[in-house]
Amino acid sequence: MSTTRAHRDHDSSTKGIVAGGGTIFAATMLGLTGVWQVLAGIAAIANDDIYVLGGEYSYSFDITAWGWVHLVIGALAIAIAVGIFSGNQWALSAGIGVAFVSSLSNFAFLPYYPLWAIVVLAFDAFIIWALCQRLMQAD
Protein backbone atom coordinates (compact mmCIF):
# COMPACT_ATOMS: atom_id res chain seq x y z
CA MET A 1 0.00 0.00 0.00
CA SER A 2 1.52 3.33 -1.02
CA THR A 3 1.81 6.37 1.17
CA THR A 4 -0.64 8.24 -1.03
CA ARG A 5 -3.24 5.49 -0.68
CA ALA A 6 -2.73 5.30 3.10
CA HIS A 7 -3.14 9.06 3.33
CA ARG A 8 -6.26 8.92 1.16
CA ASP A 9 -7.72 6.08 3.29
CA HIS A 10 -7.02 8.08 6.45
CA ASP A 11 -8.69 11.18 4.99
CA SER A 12 -11.83 9.19 4.15
CA SER A 13 -12.06 7.63 7.62
CA THR A 14 -14.35 9.15 10.23
CA LYS A 15 -11.38 10.37 12.28
CA GLY A 16 -9.84 11.95 9.18
CA ILE A 17 -13.07 13.70 8.24
CA VAL A 18 -13.57 15.04 11.76
CA ALA A 19 -9.93 16.18 11.97
CA GLY A 20 -10.20 17.82 8.55
CA GLY A 21 -13.42 19.61 9.46
CA GLY A 22 -11.94 20.70 12.76
CA THR A 23 -8.88 22.00 10.94
CA ILE A 24 -10.97 24.06 8.54
CA PHE A 25 -12.99 25.43 11.45
CA ALA A 26 -9.79 26.13 13.42
CA ALA A 27 -8.29 27.96 10.44
CA THR A 28 -11.48 29.99 10.10
CA MET A 29 -11.45 30.83 13.81
CA LEU A 30 -7.73 31.67 13.65
CA GLY A 31 -8.40 34.09 10.80
CA LEU A 32 -11.40 35.56 12.61
CA THR A 33 -9.53 36.06 15.87
CA GLY A 34 -6.71 37.54 13.81
CA VAL A 35 -9.11 40.11 12.37
CA TRP A 36 -10.43 40.83 15.87
CA GLN A 37 -6.89 41.29 17.16
CA VAL A 38 -6.05 43.66 14.29
CA LEU A 39 -9.19 45.71 14.97
CA ALA A 40 -8.44 45.84 18.70
CA GLY A 41 -4.86 46.86 17.91
CA ILE A 42 -5.92 49.62 15.56
CA ALA A 43 -8.44 50.89 18.11
CA ALA A 44 -5.78 50.99 20.84
CA ILE A 45 -3.20 52.67 18.60
CA ALA A 46 -5.63 55.27 17.25
CA ASN A 47 -7.26 56.16 20.57
CA ASP A 48 -5.20 55.70 23.73
CA ASP A 49 -8.14 56.10 26.11
CA ILE A 50 -10.39 53.46 24.54
CA TYR A 51 -9.23 50.88 27.13
CA VAL A 52 -9.14 51.79 30.81
CA LEU A 53 -7.15 50.00 33.52
CA GLY A 54 -8.99 49.89 36.83
CA GLY A 55 -5.98 49.61 39.14
CA GLU A 56 -2.33 48.70 39.30
CA TYR A 57 -1.45 45.59 37.36
CA SER A 58 1.80 43.66 37.09
CA TYR A 59 1.70 43.43 33.29
CA SER A 60 0.64 46.99 32.63
CA PHE A 61 1.92 48.48 29.40
CA ASP A 62 1.03 51.61 27.58
CA ILE A 63 -2.22 51.10 25.65
CA THR A 64 -0.41 51.94 22.41
CA ALA A 65 2.07 49.13 23.14
CA TRP A 66 -0.83 46.71 23.67
CA GLY A 67 -2.27 47.94 20.38
CA TRP A 68 0.93 47.02 18.56
CA VAL A 69 1.05 43.63 20.27
CA HIS A 70 -2.51 42.86 19.15
CA LEU A 71 -1.88 44.19 15.66
CA VAL A 72 1.21 42.02 15.11
CA ILE A 73 -0.38 38.87 16.56
CA GLY A 74 -3.51 39.46 14.48
CA ALA A 75 -1.56 39.92 11.25
CA LEU A 76 0.41 36.73 11.93
CA ALA A 77 -2.80 34.83 12.70
CA ILE A 78 -4.40 35.93 9.44
CA ALA A 79 -1.32 34.97 7.40
CA ILE A 80 -1.08 31.56 9.10
CA ALA A 81 -4.81 30.93 8.61
CA VAL A 82 -4.29 31.49 4.88
CA GLY A 83 -1.39 29.00 5.06
CA ILE A 84 -3.60 26.40 6.75
CA PHE A 85 -6.28 26.86 4.09
CA SER A 86 -3.57 26.38 1.46
CA GLY A 87 -2.71 23.01 3.00
CA ASN A 88 0.78 23.85 4.26
CA GLN A 89 1.90 21.49 7.02
CA TRP A 90 4.16 24.11 8.62
CA ALA A 91 1.10 26.33 9.08
CA LEU A 92 -0.46 23.82 11.49
CA SER A 93 2.46 24.13 13.90
CA ALA A 94 2.69 27.87 13.34
CA GLY A 95 -1.05 28.14 14.05
CA ILE A 96 -0.58 26.40 17.38
CA GLY A 97 2.28 28.76 18.18
CA VAL A 98 0.44 31.95 17.29
CA ALA A 99 -2.70 30.81 19.15
CA PHE A 100 -0.52 30.12 22.20
CA VAL A 101 1.11 33.57 22.01
CA SER A 102 -2.34 35.11 21.48
CA SER A 103 -3.67 33.34 24.57
CA LEU A 104 -0.74 34.58 26.65
CA SER A 105 -1.19 38.16 25.47
CA ASN A 106 -4.94 38.06 26.05
CA PHE A 107 -4.44 36.63 29.53
CA ALA A 108 -2.21 39.61 30.31
CA PHE A 109 -4.81 41.89 28.65
CA LEU A 110 -7.65 40.69 30.96
CA PRO A 111 -7.72 43.82 33.19
CA TYR A 112 -8.12 46.13 30.20
CA TYR A 113 -11.05 44.40 28.50
CA PRO A 114 -12.07 41.19 30.34
CA LEU A 115 -14.97 40.04 28.14
CA TRP A 116 -12.97 40.45 24.93
CA ALA A 117 -9.95 38.67 26.37
CA ILE A 118 -12.00 35.73 27.67
CA VAL A 119 -13.72 35.23 24.31
CA VAL A 120 -10.41 35.27 22.45
CA LEU A 121 -8.88 32.91 25.07
CA ALA A 122 -11.71 30.43 24.51
CA PHE A 123 -11.23 30.55 20.73
CA ASP A 124 -7.47 30.19 21.12
CA ALA A 125 -7.95 27.08 23.29
CA PHE A 126 -10.17 25.50 20.63
CA ILE A 127 -7.74 26.43 17.85
CA ILE A 128 -4.84 24.82 19.71
CA TRP A 129 -6.87 21.68 20.39
CA ALA A 130 -8.11 21.31 16.81
CA LEU A 131 -4.72 21.89 15.21
CA CYS A 132 -3.05 19.46 17.64
CA GLN A 133 -5.67 16.85 16.71
CA ARG A 134 -4.85 17.35 13.03
CA LEU A 135 -1.12 17.04 13.69
CA MET A 136 -1.68 13.83 15.64
CA GLN A 137 -3.87 12.46 12.81
CA ALA A 138 -1.13 13.21 10.29
CA ASP A 139 1.24 10.73 11.99
Automatic annotation (TrEMBL):
What is this protein's record name?
Answer: DUF7144 domain-containing protein
Enumerate the UniProt keywords alphabetically. Membrane, Transmembrane, Transmembrane helix
Segments passing through the bilayer: 21-45, 65-85, 90-109, 115-132
Q: Where is the DUF7144 domain?
A: 23-133
